[in-house]
Specification:
The chain is an alpha+beta fold. 40% of the residues lie in helices and 9% in strands. The protein is built from ten helices and ten strands. The longest helix has 23 residues. About 4% of the residues have low confidence.
């Protein structure tokens, strides 16, 4: 088995851009698709076994390293900043470094976890990958960020939730190890969106009610008719642009998209569990990482999920986790109500 190659921008969106009448947009998208195909097969890494979460004996600290690919595709590139090193003159490097730290901090402070594997996994990131590369990805070992084409996408380190989303794929790899296909793949993507949103909210000190629940807000060029890559609050509404197309995410099982593309629609159908988390978090109120996020974290680290877990099985596990942690309280009602609202049974 191999570790999944997980990107923030889905292939169906890049394929749409590759057919654009704008030659520079089309060329950048085609180049990104080619780079993704190459990176997807560049390395075969074993999937690590699930590691239990354990609170460190003393406060854990991140071990970050940021590299510069210098617009080439060889990884990891030239080392430009180590843990504790001074900020550089490159804002992209500094944002990547800060985003790694923000993600580490959320997992440590909210859940008592020491990095993505629970055992102090070093956090590695490469920036300035390829030329006009319109994506960011986790390859099973590190994170990689493109600079965008400056016509559709801006620098992929700009939204902290994009950084956190990619790093959270490492968390999934080391815990539930959800297969990157069909419903389990959509759950894999959704979990990254959930924890990406939580990192953003943690950084901003926002409650569930104050948050925008957008993934990748600030990534699009100002000329694009769209607010973000995805909306957890209202899946299907993140963008509607002549060049980019319309956000295809469903919010309910009635609209589940059956497709052979995008590994069975992992970036599309993730809108359903995304919306369930949003509904549970806003029903409970307060900081989303404190109760709703805790329940999702407990499920991911419980050992009860199979690699091919389906939405309904994940939903049942969240109800069980809510009961185990909070008893017969408001948390169970909020989680059950949220899944019912998106058409996923919990019994």
């Amino acid at each position: 088995m191999t570790s999944p190659f997980c990107t923030i921008v889905p292939p169906h969106l890049l394929e749409h851009l590759a057919a654009s009448a704008n030659p520079s947009v089309a060329a950048a998208a085609r180049r990104t698709l080619i780079a993704d195909a190459s990176a997807r097969t560049a390395r075969v890494l074993p999937r690590p076994s699930a590691a239990p979460s354990a609170a460190p004996a003393e406060p854990a600290a991140p071990r970050r390293t940021v590299y510069d690919a210098q617009r080439r595709t060889e990884l990891p590139g030239v080392k430009v900043r180590d843990e504790g090193g001074e900020a550089t003159g490159d804002a992209t490097v500094n944002r990547a470094y800060a985003g790694l730290g923000a993600t580490f901090t959320l997992f440590r402070d909210a859940f008592g976890r020491d990095s993505m594997d629970g055992s102090g996994l070093p956090l590695l990131a490469t920036v300035h990958y390829d030329e006009k590369y319109g994506n960011a990805f986790w390859n099973g070992e590190q994170m990689v960020f493109g600079d965008g084409d400056d016509e559709i996408f801006l620098d992929f380190t700009l939204p902290v939730d994009v950084i956190a989303h990619e790093l959270a794929h490492g968390f999934t790899q080391y815990t539930a190890n959800l297969e990157y296909f069909s419903q389990s793949g959509a759950l894999n993507e959704s979990v990254s969106d959930v924890f990406g949103a939580l990192v953003k909210q943690h950084v901003l000190g926002q409650t569930a009610e104050q948050a925008d629940w957008l993934i990748g807000e600030g990534l699009f060029h100002p000329d694009v008719e769209g607010t973000a890559l995805r909306s957890m609050k209202a899946p299907g509404t993140a963008y509607d642009d002549d060049v980019l197309g319309k956000d295809p995410q469903p919010a309910h099982m009635d609209d589940y998209v059956r497709t052979g593309r995008d590994n069975g629609g992992v970036h599309i159908n993730s809108g359903i569990p995304n919306h369930a988390f949003y509904l549970a978090a806003t029903e409970l109120g307060g900081h989303a990482w404190e109760r709703a996020g805790r329940i999702w974290y407990d499920v991911m680290t419980s050992g009860v999920l199979a690699p091919d877990t389906r939405f309904s099985e994940f939903a049942v596990a969240t109800v069980a986790a809510a009961k185990a942690r909070y008893g017969d309280a408001a948390e169970i009602q909020a989680v059950t109500k949220a899944w019912a609202a998106v058409g996923v049974p919990t019994d």
